């Protein structure tokens, strides 16, 4: 897990979703906007239709924050961003299925690579 200063609050997530620029992968959409903070901040939205139980949703959220701990201090063109990852409704995640976990991780890594390596 990452500390609270690197996570977005609910009202900040709504702002990013309204004003952010989207990037797409197979199962996840990434919205991001520039922030005035001194670090990158992250959030994930997992629809209740994508995950069977709340326990599995929490496990995927923890896995997400563990992956994001690598990108906390990464700058993209001398500025910091707020990132909101949204799992698509038709994407089915299962914590017991290794293929589901791998595709989840691959989608997130692809989107991060796309953001930090653009241009």
Specify the number of helices.
Answer: 3
Structural class determined from secondary elements:
alpha+beta
Overall radius of gyration: 14 Å
Residue ranges: pLDDT <50 for 5 or more in a row? none
The tally of strands reads 4
- SSE order: HEEEHEH
| Ends apart, CA distance between termini | 30 Å
Q: Strand content of the residues, in percent?
A: 15-25%
Tertiary shape: globular
Strand line-up of the largest beta sheet: 1-2-4-3
> What is the residue-averaged pLDDT?
86
Helix content: 25-40%
Let me know the largest β-sheet.
Answer: 4 strands, mixed
Structural description of this entry:
This protein has helices at residues 10-19, 54-68, 98-116, and strands at 21-24, 28-35, 41-46, 80-87. Helices cover 37% and strands 22% of the residues. Helix 2 (54-68) runs parallel beside helix 3. It has a four-stranded mixed β-sheet with strand order 1-2-4-3, with helices on both faces. It has three helices and four strands. By secondary structure, it is α+β, with helices and mostly antiparallel strands.
Provide keyphrases for this structure.
single chain; 119 residues; alpha+beta; four-stranded mixed sheet; 4 strands; 37% helix; globular
How do the helices and strands line up, and which of them pair or pack?
Blueprint: H1 10-19, E1 21-24, E2 28-35, E3 41-46, H2 54-68, E4 80-87, H3 98-116
Parallel strand pairs: 3-4
Antiparallel strand pairs: 1-2, 2-4
Describe the structure in brief.
It contains 3 helices and 4 strands. It has 119 residues and is α+β, with helices and mostly antiparallel strands.
């Amino acid at each position: 897990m990452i500390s609270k200063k690197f996570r977005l609050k609910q009202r900040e997530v709504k702002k990013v979703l309204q004003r952010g620029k989207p990037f797409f992968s197979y199962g996840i959409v990434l919205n991001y906007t520039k922030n005035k903070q001194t670090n990158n901040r992250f959030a994930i939205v997992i629809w209740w239709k994508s995950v069977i139980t709340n326990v599995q949703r929490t496990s995927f959220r923890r896995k997400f924050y563990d992956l994001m701990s690598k990108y906390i201090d990464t700058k993209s063109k001398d500025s910091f961003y707020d990132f909101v990852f949204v799992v698509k409704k038709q994407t089915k995640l299962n914590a017991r299925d290794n293929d589901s976990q791998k595709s989840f991780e691959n989608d997130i890594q692809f989107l991060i690579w796309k953001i930090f390596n653009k241009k």
